[in-house]
């Protein structure tokens, strides 16, 4: 439809004249056109009525289809009104008043919304074009007769009629301008000013109430109908406006309806690129630039940061909504500014999966799902399709099909995992280092501030090279899908992603920031609040510019001295780290359920709980001491089941004891981020014949007893450490001791045990439990052998003359006959002691005292088997102090070569 303003402008709207001189050629061409015949107002109104009748019919058809009710007395949908029907529509009277009444009656039937001046606006707003079309000056137009309005009104009527007649050709330039401006909407402000400036001709009363369409574009009108149309046809309401068509839905409505119905079955699983591209364009344009500019301003005044956090979160939410798989490739230029690494830049555009050989698949994998999983899988696959993470493909001869399974997320949703176990066997493995929670704990300083940024769909941001996507396929409901980006389950994915992030982290480190990234979790730290805010801002802007999407919910933008990252609660005030409450409770319940299970559990379930236990070690100080019996049971059961994780297994008593420890301690356990510097240092060493130790220039050592000497040297080294602790730290509490040794025993004790040797693991556990009882923190460091001379000497020193002892059985019989029960052995070592309580002549791990001559013997019931050199001193002390004793001296000696009994 033409516009009321269009003919009003040509009648007398001088305000829109171009500031440039009118085109004289067009003016002359316009003047040479034959004069239009006198317009027929009634005919124009009849044609308007006819056109609006068609629209009313269409509305009624759509509403009837929505209600599933057929229209009665109406002609078939899409059938054009015949000339007779049009004549009937206009046969209500022979006067213009009756025609106008007929028009208004039909208009009332067909309109849902009315607005004053609501003619469909299709006028060009270019003043230059209008001036050229009018081809006259402002004064000339003022002198034009009113009949020009009648000519234009007649043209309007002809434009709205079904069977338009055409006149002679006009100049091509004029035609081009008309075509260029046709269908373009007039600016609303300009429209308002025109209507205020110019009035409607008095002899055109029908134009005041024609209200052919609401004063909105056709698209807005069609959207008003979307709720009334069946879902399968709703797509026609989203069609672009067709400026050369007088109909709301264009000239090909029947074809559009057919196409919409055929496409409806695919609409739920296919993304709408037009809408997403439009939104992405908006975000990458003004919105991103505005947020970046805002962050730069905040960087210079960090006190304003918290006020703008809601703005940042809204921006991030919009990014999450419009996420597209492989989006970092669209930011390639930004990557080239921070790295020139060819491998990283290649991965940005598309990761090439490096294989040892061409993957070959002989059989398709089987997969089973629980009934409730089908609906979840449908939803998850639909989400992935919408994001462009997966797409439907046709089969290929070289494709590789894998199975899929679900894994629950902490928020209750699920993650679809591609089971690439078989395919991963052909993927090349490269060793690499990934930062972990242990790296973070080494960075935390007293009272520092921390924040974290979580990358949403991190793997999905990295595209896979198109030629390699055929290896990442799965089948769902007889349809083949393939991943277009890094999937969860690809063995090389962690390394690829970690390496991609390295340039970003290096850039932040060069700016002086403390940052660590573990896959999609970025830990940020600053010694002060302001420094941490600047770290957050710089990291945010960099990652956003590189194409990553930061999760608005999982990220912690506001710096704090307590933060949850990677499942642990870090506190820089107390310098501790512990499991989050939810994780601790979950682990406690899992351990109790496994320990008290009435029937054997699968190896897979036991392995799952072992995984939870091991993952909790950074926040449970003594956790590594209490899982290896359980792990040993699992390893043995898996060996017997020939690798079948679904086989069942029984738990040993030792494994159940460990599970009970976790039940009792996991909720209250924590780990210190730092320990005080060691207050004591003990050096030990061992040989196959004995052990030695040194502490504060005091040395000791001894021979192995027969049962100890047969063990492996690694065990003997650990035993030497334990003996050194018992010797020099028996009276110490609440302290930190550093042990020094030159063997592999260092690692076993530092790791609180080993799975490679039961006897060494038991010794490590025994050492640590001894320290726990005394609240001693123990660290063991390696020392080169050439610096461990004293302990090494003591371990190899042979002192057999001091290790003599009587036969225990004969001594016991003798004491019974003498009716004497000694309480202490005054001259003994851990090797030749005759009674549990003894006194050694040098530092000894189990001796109750050192040097018997420093004690009072008056009230002691003791047994003495002294060395030759102290027999005289011993007898003198006995005579002086008395007491109850049994002294045994070796025969054949120059003095006291006899047994004496003192009472």
From TrEMBL:
Biased composition (Basic and acidic residues): 29-40, 273-287
Acidic residues bias spans: 86-98
Pfam annotation, one family: RVT_3
GO molecular function: nucleic acid binding; RNA-DNA hybrid ribonuclease activity
CDD domains hit by this protein: RNase_HI_RT_DIRS1, RT_DIRS1
UniProt-annotated stretches for the region Disordered: 9-40, 65-128, 260-287
PANTHER family found in the cross-reference section: REVERSE TRANSCRIPTASE DOMAIN-CONTAINING PROTEIN, RIBONUCLEASE H
Protein name: Uncharacterized protein
């Amino acid at each position: 439809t033409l516009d009321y303003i269009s003919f009003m402008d040509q009648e007398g709207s001088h305000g829109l004249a171009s500031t440039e001189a009118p085109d004289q050629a067009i003016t002359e061409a316009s003047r040479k056109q034959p004069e239009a015949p006198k317009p027929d107002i009634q005919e124009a109104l009849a044609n308007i009525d006819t056109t609006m009748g068609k629209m009313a019919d269409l509305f009624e058809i759509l509403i009837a289809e929505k209600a599933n009710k057929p229209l009665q007395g109406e002609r078939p949908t899409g059938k054009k009104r015949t000339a007779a029907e049009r004549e009937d529509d206009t046969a209500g009277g022979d006067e213009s008043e009756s025609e106008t009444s007929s028009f208004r009656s039909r208009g009332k039937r067909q309109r849902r919304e009315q607005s004053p001046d609501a003619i469909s606006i299709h006028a060009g707003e270019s003043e230059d074009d209008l001036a050229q079309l009018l081809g006259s000056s402002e004064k000339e137009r003022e002198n034009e007769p009113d009949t020009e309005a009648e000519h234009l009104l007649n043209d309007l009527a002809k434009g709205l009629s079904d069977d338009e007649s055409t006149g002679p050709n006009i100049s091509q330039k004029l035609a081009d301008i008309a075509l260029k401006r046709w269908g373009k909407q007039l600016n609303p402000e300009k429209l308002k000013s025109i209507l205020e400036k110019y009035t409607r001709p008095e002899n055109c009363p029908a134009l005041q109430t024609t209200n052919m369409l609401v004063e909105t574009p056709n698209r807005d009108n069609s959207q008003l109908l979307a709720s009334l149309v069946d879902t399968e046809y709703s797509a026609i309401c989203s069609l672009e406006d067709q400026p050369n068509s007088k109909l709301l839905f264009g000239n090909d409505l029947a074809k559009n309806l057919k196409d919409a119905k055929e496409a409806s079955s695919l609409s739920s699983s296919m993304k709408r690129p037009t809408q997403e591209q439009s939104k992405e364009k908006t975000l990458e344009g003004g919105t991103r630039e505005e947020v970046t500019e805002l962050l730069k301003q905040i960087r210079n005044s960090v006190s304003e940061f918290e006020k703008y956090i809601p703005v940042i979160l809204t921006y991030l939410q919009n990014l999450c909504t419009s996420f597209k798989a492989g989006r970092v490739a669209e930011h390639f230029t930004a990557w080239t500014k921070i790295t020139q690494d060819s491998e990283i830049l290649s991965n940005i555009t598309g990761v090439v999966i490096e294989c040892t050989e061409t993957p070959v698949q002989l059989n398709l994998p089987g997969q089973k799902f629980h009934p409730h999983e089908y609906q979840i899988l449908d939803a998850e696959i639909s989400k992935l399709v919408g994001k462009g993470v997966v797409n439907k493909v046709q089969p290929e001869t070289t494709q590789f099909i894998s199975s899929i399974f679900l894994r629950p997320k902490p928020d209750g949703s699920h993650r679809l995992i591609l089971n690439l176990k078989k395919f991963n066997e052909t993927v090349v493995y490269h060793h690499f280092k990934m930062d972990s929670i242990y790296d973070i704990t080494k960075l935390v300083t007293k009272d520092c501030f921390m924040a974290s940024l979580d990358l949403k769909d991190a793997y999905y941001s990295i595209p896979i090279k198109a030629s390699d996507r055929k290896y990442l396929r799965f089948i769902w409901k007889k349809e083949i899908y393939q991943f277009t980006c890094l999937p969860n389950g690809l063995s090389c994915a962690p390394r690829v992603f970690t390496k991609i992030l390295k340039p970003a982290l290096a850039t932040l480190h060069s700016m002086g920031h403390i940052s660590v990234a573990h896959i999609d979790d970025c830990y940020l730290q600053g010694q002060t609040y302001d420094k941490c805010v600047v770290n957050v801002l710089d990291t945010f802007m960099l990652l956003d510019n590189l194409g990553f999407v930061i999760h608005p919910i999982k990220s912690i933008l506001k710096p704090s001295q307590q933060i949850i990252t990677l499942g642990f609660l870090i506190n820089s005030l107390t310098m501790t780290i512990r499991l989050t409450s939810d994780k601790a409770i979950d682990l406690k319940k899992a351990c109790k359920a496994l320990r008290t299970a009435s029937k054997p559990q699968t190896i897979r379930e036991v392995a799952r709980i072992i995984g939870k236990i091991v993952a909790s070690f950074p926040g449970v100080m003594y956790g590594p001491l209490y899982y290896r019996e359980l792990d040993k049971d699992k390893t043995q059961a898996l060996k017997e089941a020939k690798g079948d994780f679904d086989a069942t297994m029984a738990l040993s008593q030792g494994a159940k004891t460990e599970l009970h420890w976790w039940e009792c301690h996991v909720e209250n356990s924590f780990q210190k981020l730092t320990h005080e510097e060691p207050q004591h240092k003990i050096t030990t060493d061992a040989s196959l014949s004995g052990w030695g130790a040194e502490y504060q220039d005091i040395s000791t050592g001894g021979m192995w007893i027969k049962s100890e000497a047969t063990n492996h040297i690694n065990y003997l080294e650990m035993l030497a450490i334990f003996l050194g602790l018992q010797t020099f730290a028996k009276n110490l509490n609440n302290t930190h001791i550093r042990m020094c040794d030159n063997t592999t025993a260092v690692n076993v004790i530092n790791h609180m045990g080993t799975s490679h040797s039961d006897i060494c693991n038991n010794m490590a556990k025994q050492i640590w439990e001894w320290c726990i009882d005394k609240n001693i923190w123990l660290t063991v460091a390696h020392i080169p052998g050439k610096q461990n001379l004293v302990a090494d000497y003591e371990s190899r020193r042979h002192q057999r003359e001091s290790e003599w002892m009587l036969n225990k059985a004969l001594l016991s019989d003798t004491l019974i006959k003498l009716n004497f029960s000694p309480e202490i052995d005054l001259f003994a070592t851990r090797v030749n002691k005759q009674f549990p309580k003894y006194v050694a002549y040098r530092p000894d791990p189990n001796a109750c005292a050192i040097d018997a001559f420093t004690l009072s013997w008056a009230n002691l019931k003791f047994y003495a088997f002294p060395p030759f050199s102290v027999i005289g001193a011993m007898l003198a002390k006995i005579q002086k102090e008395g007491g109850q004793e049994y002294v045994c001296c070796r025969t054949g000696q120059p003095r006291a070569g006899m047994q004496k009994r003192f009472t």
